[in-house]
Amino acid sequence: MEKIILENGIKLLYKKSENNLTSFTIGFNAGANQEDNEHLGIAHAVEHMIFKGTTSRSEYEINKLCDETFGFCNAMTNYPYVVYYGTTLDEEFEKGFEIYADILLNPIFPEQGFKEEIDVIDAELKEWKDDLYQFCEDSMFYNAFDKRRLKNLIIGTQESIHDITIKQIKNFYEQNYTSNNCVISVVSSMSLQKILDIVEKHMGNFNTKLINNSKNIQEIKEYTYEYNKPGTYYEYRDDLQGAKIQYCFTIHDLSRREISALKLFNLVFGDGTSSILFDEIRTKRGLVYDIGSFIKNETGIKLFTISLGTSYENVYKTIEIIDNEIEKVKELKSFFDQKSILKLCKSYKLRRMIALEKSIQTSMSLCVYEIMYYDGESIFSEFDGMKNITEEEIMKVVNKVLVNATIQVLMPNAGSRR
Question: Which residues are CB-neighbours of 79 under 8 A, at least 6 positions away?
Fold first, then answer.
């Protein structure tokens, strides 16, 4: 892997591949974390409006060119970043890259169609709530935190969405879509020099006139975390038959090595069908169809979570068993010996490499890791240091993290149960 910083501050990450495809991602530290409380959802709205036309192309022309050029393309706003990504044939890379460079460097943010796009986002918000696991998680975040941006959806609230103006969109774009805040990752069989030539040709002049103007240099917000509020929160809906349960614990105060230790523990605790949670609650008792635990280490999120679905009759019993299993794993001894840790390291490496098998996934991961951790290359090397982690370190992290859970329960109203 190669990393080059262009004269205008753009970071270019390059990874050689062996097929005839080129995948690339253009990302900015311009996600929901960069918003203030008065403009919830504006980062996501900017992502939508970017595609509404440029100084030289209409929205229809952009859509038509994307269909003709890309095998796959998309955009996504998260809390810590926004990314625009796609895959082309090698010979079509410059064409695809030029299209994205155009929409990102030359958007016009037209008034015509703006209201309709806001209505699209509003419909997206309503559809978001139809995903019951997502709805349960969103309710948990809302109840667990007072000040975090995570408390509200990336997409914003219905009220905040309809308060967004074109002027606010332009201001957010100008402040955050800057060359010194841009990461480009490319996975290709084409040479680095060829890729570099194309990137410099189409984005080398991005913001160059602003580089020496300190007022136009984007200031990255120092994200402020807070610990979750412990407790069990219940929400009821008429359209449910079963129940969803989610737990969260904060991990923002863990070091990188402690996160690695937690990843090893999670392979045993809740990741897979042989994990402790799955075995105790699904296999032995049949209380759930599926259950898992997850590490959400993105900037602004930083949580360890447990997620499951069960019947409303088994909610309290399931919570009791999970709480008991949490207390039991805190007392594990001689469980993570050197042989077991090496086996877990191999398992983690295998899963990571399978996840990165697709070039578009590698490209996205390189980009977002560089944005969040200033270290895109760590996607290939993060498991190297795991081999030296000790059982003492793992157990110390377990006892540090698995305390004061926020538990969210989504259940049917009594009248809707059958």
Answer: 31, 32, 33, 149, 150, 154, 298, 299, 300, 301
pTM: 0.91
Model pLDDT for residues 21-76, shown as the tens digit of each residue: 999 999 999 999 999 888 899 999 999 999 999 999 999 999 999 999 999 999 99
- Using an 8 Å Cβ cutoff, are 326 and 249 in contact? no
User: What whole-number distance in Å separates Cα of residue 254 and Cα of residue 271?
Assistant: 20
Q: What residue type is assigned to position 176 of the chain? A: N
Interatomic CA distance for residues 347 and 263, integer angstroms: 11
Render the burial of 1-26: b for 16+ CB within 10 Å, e for the rest. eeeeebebbbbbbbbebeeebbbbbb
Q: Answer for the pair 405, 31: CB distance below 8 angstroms, yes or no.
A: no
Query: Rounded to whole angstroms, how far apart are CA atoms 144 and 138?
Result: 10
CA distance 73 to 84: 8
Residue 93's closest CA among 27, 22, 196?
Answer: 22
- Evaluate whether 31 touches 77 at the Cβ level (below 8 Å): yes
| Cβ proximity of 43 and 91 under 8 Å | no
Look at the alpha carbons of 95, 64, 83, 360 in this order and tell me if their dihedral is positive or negative: negative
d(CA 169, CA 171): 5
Cβ-based neighbours of 379, under 8 Å, separated by 6 or more: 352, 356, 362, 365, 366, 369
For residues 81-93, give the mean pLDDT. 96
Label each residue of 202-229 as H, E or C: HHCCCCHHHCCCHHHCCCCCCCCCCCCC
Strand partners, 311: 242
Say whether 84 sits in a helix, a strand or coil: strand
Residue 278 phi/psi, 5-degree rounding, is -65, -45
Q: Which of 295, 307, 281 is nearest to 397 (CA)?
A: 295
Name the 3-class secondary structure at 184: strand
Range in 52-56, 227-231, 383-387 with the lowest mean pLDDT: 383-387
With a CB cutoff of 8 Å and minimum separation 6, the contacts of 366 are 1, 13, 15, 25, 185, 187, 376, 377, 379
Residue 149: closest CA among 309, 157, 356: 157
